[in-house]
Design goal:
Layout lengths: L1 H26 L7 H17 L2 H28 L13 H4 L5 H11 L15 H31 L4 H6 L7 H9 L2 H35 L18 H20 L4 H34 L7 H24 L1 H5 L3 H28 L1 H5 L7
Helix pairs in contact: 1-2, 1-9, 1-10, 1-11, 1-14, 2-9, 2-10, 3-6, 3-9, 8-9, 9-10, 11-12, 11-14
């Protein structure tokens, strides 16, 4: 249930960013539509892709992500080749810089960058050799995401100069234009324009990825008896978790409509509020999973791979993740710009999901102990 809330809020919140970015892009071509029109156009296409088999969605996703990576790497190379604004510096990695301010808000954004790496596991049943390919894909994702963001962030800091960055960003009316301004300066207008297009497609890629994740959580929970059984069936032609896909599309359409009627800002409200709830949910998931690992191996010692991987590492990870969760909750109003009452209400969605999940588990355990015991023991 935490996964459903987390990934749904993440996915639906991205419609706000997509609508605003698409509106800005097409206004340059003289097309003036409200942001929500672009959001609903994207929603319709994602509903079709999600309803069909994963191969189609994966091909679209791969094409978009490859183009985005390439575009940013071109900028990285241009900055390095020109030596940045005043020579390349390792100052951004100095502890005095890293811990100059409270790291809690930075940690939230860092975790948000990694959200989705764990999605490799939900494709386990569609992989030919999940015990080999899923761990490899997960480790590769973590290294690629971490390395790519670290390199690109370092390049962008050097592009303007370590001592000028804060002042320069503070002087921008829209700080999100920083990347495009640096592309203009170091590579030319063609790259800036391409990046503007790819920014829209990158958000679209995120929408598509999170939609697929939500659909598969609906499917898994339906199959195991935690949700109605019709969620646990695949399409007779596409073999996709079509019921969960439809449910996610309908939910997204309703929530976006509420924000439209309430005349809320697509970025400052829809995007900011819901994606931060999504990040909170995914971190909570990882924390719970970390403590579930030693609990499982304590009962099934014959399956353990060793004391470090089965007990020490997950407990340490869980403790660190709980610490991060604490900082997120107490700083949530700073992250979202919402009032304290609204902020705590939004974070309360995760607690609400956990309570509902606990109730569903207890009910299933009482009604069908054998089925409850089989949860998680599917193909992988």
């Amino acid at each position: 249930m935490i996964a459903l809330i987390g990934y749904n809020t993440m996915q639906i919140g991205l419609y706000g960013m997509f609508g605003a970015a698409a509106q800005s892009l097409f206004q340059q071509a003289g097309i003036n539509l409200p942001w929500w029109a672009y959001s609903y156009i994207a929603m319709a296409s994602i509903a079709v892709l999600g309803y069909r088999q994963v191969d189609l969605s994966a091909k679209v996703l791969t094409l978009l992500v490859a183009a985005e990576y390439l575009c940013v790497l071109v900028l990285d190379v241009a900055i390095i080749a020109k030596g940045g604004a005043s020579g390349l510096s390792a100052a951004p990695f100095a502890p005095s810089r890293v811990f100059a301010m409270s790291p809690s808000i930075g940690l939230v954004f860092a975790f948000a960058c990694f959200v989705g790496f764990e999605a490799t596991t939900i494709y386990g049943e569609e992989a030919k050799d999940p015990k080999r390919t899923i761990p490899l894909a997960t480790y590769f994702s973590v290294v690629l995401i971490g390395g790519f963001y670290m390199l690109s962030s370092w390049c962008l800091v050097n592009a303007i100069g370590t001592n000028k960055l804060v002042g320069f960003l503070g002087g921008l009316q829209d700080p999100t234009r920083f990347l495009f301004l640096m592309a203009n300066r170091y590579a030319g207008h063609w790259l800036s324009l391409l990046m503007s297009v790819l920014f829209v497609t990158s958000v679209y890629a995120g929408l598509l990825a999170f939609h697929n994740s939500v659909a598969r959580y609906f499917f898994a929970m339906g199959r195991e008896g935690l949700l109605p059984q019709y969620f646990g069936k695949t399409h007779h032609v596409h073999q996709s978790p079509h019921t969960g896909s439809v449910a996610q599309s309908v939910l997204a359409a309703v929530v976006v409509l509420i924000f439209v009627i309430a005349k809320q800002d697509p970025v400052l409200s829809l995007f900011s509020w819901l994606t931060n709830v999504g990040t909170l949910g995914v971190i909570a998931l990882m924390a719970i999973a970390s403590f579930a690992v030693p609990a499982f191996f304590a009962r099934n010692r014959h399956l353990s791979d060793g004391i470090f991987s089965s007990f020490i590492a997950p407990v340490v990870a869980g403790a660190l993740l709980v610490t991060v969760l604490y900082f997120i909750v107490i700083n949530f109003s700073l992250l979202t710009g919402a009032s304290k009452l609204l902020s705590y209400s939004l974070t309360g969605l995760i607690l609400f999901a956990a309570i509902i999940g606990g109730i569903l588990s207890i009910r299933l355990r009482a009604a069908d102990p054998a089925r409850y015991k089989s949860i998680g023991f599917e193909k992988i």
